[in-house]
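A brief tutorial aside. Many learners find it easier to grasp structure tokens once they have seen a single protein encoded end to end. The record that follows does exactly this for AcrR family transcriptional regulator. Read the sequence first, then the structure, and try to relate runs of similar tokens to stretches of the chain.
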Amino acid sequence: MAGGEPPRRDRSRLPAARRRRQIVEVTTRLIAERGFRGLSMQDVADGCGLTVPGLLHHVGSKDGLLVAVLEHRDAEDARTLAAELGRPDDLAGVDLRRMCSALVRRNASQPEIVRLFTVLQAESLAPSHPAHDYFAARQDRTVAVFTDLAKDVTDTPGSLARQITAMMDGLQTQWLRSPGTTDLVREWEAAAGSLFAGLPA
């Protein structure tokens, strides 16, 4: 056919939970490639075999879609981290350095997801961005968790928590720019040696 075939619509009815997961996965890939500003609802719909009205039936709006992607990723990471640390119910009292290492290993295994969050985190510095409040609250939560875990190892837990957060973010950005020459886990362990130097093991 001249002009190419129109996108095929998936007429099968997936259960709502499976359809939402499919939407989140397709959107995650597209945002990682193009950023949120370059995201087209039509492209998401095409990737899921839906019409745009069908897509909106599941997510409500483009902003709702973004929040769904972010929340899904955080929930998946929390479950994986808790399982690796052997603390499925509560991370309170976990060794801070061990938790940081587990986080970095998790991120090193999913560069597309880390790229997605890095792009959105930068874009959302603009107060008008739909994820601005989400990332501000997420940063506060992350620093709060690190601060709580650092109370037993330093007299300045808030400062250490902010340094850890900044170091992780910075190393991840360098890793994303040079994935073939930067080993994220190795670089983090080297940095952690300095950050935790002199602190109780």
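Self-check: The two ends are 68 Å apart (CA to CA). If you spotted this yourself, you are ready for the next section.
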